Structure formats: structure tokens, C-alpha cells
Sequence to fold (342 residues):
Amino acid sequence: MQELIESALARIAAAHTIDELEAVRVEVLGRKGVLAGLSRDMGKLAPVERAERGKFINSAKQSLESAYDGRKNEFERAALAGRLNREWVDLTIPGAGPRPGALHPVTQIQWEIEDLFRSMGFTVLDGPEVETEFHNFDALNIPPDHPARDMQDTFWLEGGNLLRTHTSPVQVRGMEKLGPPLRMIAPGRVFRNEAVDASHEHTFYQLEGMMIDRDVSVAHLTYFMKTLLASIFRREDVTVRLRPGFFPFVEPGFELDIQCLICGGSGCPVCKHSGWVELLPCGLVNPHVLRMSGIDPAEWNGFAFGLGLTRLVMMRYAIDDIRWLQSGDLRFLNQFRTAVVR
Ligand code: DAH
Fold:
């Protein structure tokens, strides 16, 4: 019996891993182990021997358990030391810090223009991107078979609705909802079913403007457009000219050109040596359009304009490919991290 115990103690001392140690414990101290076997036999012994056996087993159990506990402790301490060595974290290293976002250049220019027009008494309106055929075309005096519908390749949706091809339908909604007198702008996203290349996108941004009042003239239109352009291009004054242009919702309709800001009008590659750059279409609101939105053209008239926000951003920052704007490419976007605080 003494030998049995000694060899068990030796194996405990020699265990290489906690699993080996555990195996020895089960074999010696477990329910079906050596010690349990020795106590089971006790019943057959004479009382004196039984008492001796009892003492022996007790002291053997004690020394085995303390040897086992000691070893187990060693293994656990070694395991902990290993983990601490592998998993330590240097809490004094500075954190990664927040990475603040920035406003997209289209948003920046949009907000700038909104602020300007608000300061001149205009309301900023929002309209739906999924539009009815009525608001996108009919109410703007674009009849069903009119070639102007072909000018704007439309994404048609089930049920006869469409993705708005311009922000002009918000004029109609503004007139319907607010009535005259009215000063409104409507920035927003528009969609056209177009092949994408460096200067065409299926999705881009426009800003529509409209003013309805009594005795509105082309002089009012020119004044507001010059104020807008001076603010956007940060000039004291900009020179503009109007050329005739056709849009069914305005009469007369114009293309507004701006004198080239690069060469001052003397001619350069940017203005294709003409001295002028085409900037935005506009005109006096067609009386039919007023009437269709419930406004009496005998009493009220107005002007409207459509500004290509995407194009304006491209001009301002000399961006040569429209696809950058929706690329989500941080190499592009990070160049517009100016602090815009509102
Ligand atoms: N809605 C036109 C387009 O997207 C642009 C436009 C032209 C708007 C003339 C106007 C305007 O308000 O008067 O092609």
C-alpha cells in the first residue's frame, strides 16, 4: 500500500500537463480509484486492522491531495502567466480617435444656395422623387406626345408613376400648396434613363426656383440670377446675357449665359473661345402652367429657373468627370473637407 501511494505521489510530481495530472487524480483519488478500493476492502478486516487502515488511508489521502493541489496550482499559475504574456494590452497607447465626416460638395453648394435664397424671402421646398406623370409633365404644359418628353429619358415605374426627371414638378406642388404670392426653391435629386459617361449620370442634382407675384418681369429674374451667381462664384458682380431657349413651362424661355470667369470674356478653352458659358435655363412662367395650378394669370405672373447643382459643383471645382460625385471614393471626397458650420 505504501508503494502504491509513493508511486502515485511520484506520478503527480512528474505530470507534464494539467490533463496528465487530472488523469492521475482520477486513477488514485477518484470514486473508482485506488484509495476508494482500499476503503472498500476495510469491511473485511478485523477491527484493529480496520482502524489502522483508516488512519493510513486518511493520511495518504491528505498527502496525495496536497501534492495534487500544489501541482495544479503550478499549472494554473503557468497558464495565467502565459495568457498575460500573450494577451497584454498597453492601455497607455493613444486611441484611434474619431474620424469626423464631411459634407458632400453637392450638399455644401446646396446649403449655400438655400441660405442665400432664404435671406431673400424664399421658402425651401421638398418634393417626392417618385412623381406622378401629371406633376412631372402634364401640369408643366408638356402634352403627351410633345417632343419635350423625349428630351428627358424617363424611368417609368409600375402604375404609371415615374422617377422625376427634373425638380420642376415641385413648382407645381408649391403653387398647389401655397398659392400666390410665392417665392420658393426646391433642391433635389433627379433621374434620367441615360447611358453614363464622363458628363452624363442617371442620377444628379438640380435646384428649381420660382417667384410668383404681381408684375414680375425679366428684370427681376436677371436680378436674382446675378445675385445668385455673384454669391456662388464669390464675385462682386457677374455679367450675364439671355438667349432665347424653349421650355414648355416658360414663355418667353431663356438660356442664361455667364461671362467666362476664367478669361473675363476675351475667349479661352473653358468658354470655347466664345467669352460666354451656358449656365442655366429660365423664363417667365407660362400662363397655362399658372392656370393648371389654380392661379389666375390675369392677376399673377412669375419667373422660374432650373439650376444644375451637379454641373455647378463641377464648374466650381473643375471636376472633369461626373462619375466622381457618386463614386463614394474617399480620395475624391476628402478634398472637400472644408469646415461647413451651419
Ligand atoms: N426642368 C428643366 C430641365 O430639367 C430645367 C428648367 C428650364 C427649369 C427652364 C426651369 C426653367 O424652371 O424655367 O431640363
